[in-house]
Amino acid sequence: MLPTDLEPHPEGGKYKEVFRSIHKIDCPNLGKRSALTHIYFQLDKGEVSAFHKVSSEEVWNLYRGEGLRLYQWDGESDEVSIIELSVQKNQFCHVVPTHHWQAVEPLDDIVLVGCSVAPGFEFNDFTLMRDCIGHADLLKKHQPSLSHLI
């Protein structure tokens, strides 16, 4: 059964934080952060997780659904990596490096994933590409077919 108490997320889809470590760490550019956070994140058919980046590493884990396409971009190169998490590919997790742009769309219907962030996620460490005109324009120039993810 899919979680029913999810809230809308600014990048699209719905989420619920299910873990926030009580252990704190000092991060040079971020200050004190929880060591780890984890959320459930759900996208329905036709929904996308718009391009965004966080100030920590993020691990995506596929829990339910046919799968997803995870787009990852370093913000400079001409190429965007496309990682498929699915039973068919026998790939169920992927780590997005710190400060890399990422976007996701389901392969078919509803997809439920878990996202772990370390050091822990804080919304003030979160940036949507649509708020960064220069990066949005550069991505549109290099990969116009991905404009729907901005």
From TrEMBL:
<dbReference type="InterPro" id="IPR014710">
    <property type="entry name" value="RmlC-like_jellyroll"/>
</dbReference>
<feature type="domain" description="DUF985">
    <location>
        <begin position="5"/>
        <end position="129"/>
    </location>
</feature>
<dbReference type="InterPro" id="IPR009327">
    <property type="entry name" value="Cupin_DUF985"/>
</dbReference>
<dbReference type="InterPro" id="IPR011051">
    <property type="entry name" value="RmlC_Cupin_sf"/>
</dbReference>
<protein>
    <submittedName>
        <fullName>Cupin domain-containing protein</fullName>
    </submittedName>
</protein>
<dbReference type="Pfam" id="PF06172">
    <property type="entry name" value="Cupin_5"/>
</dbReference>
<dbReference type="InterPro" id="IPR039935">
    <property type="entry name" value="YML079W-like"/>
</dbReference>
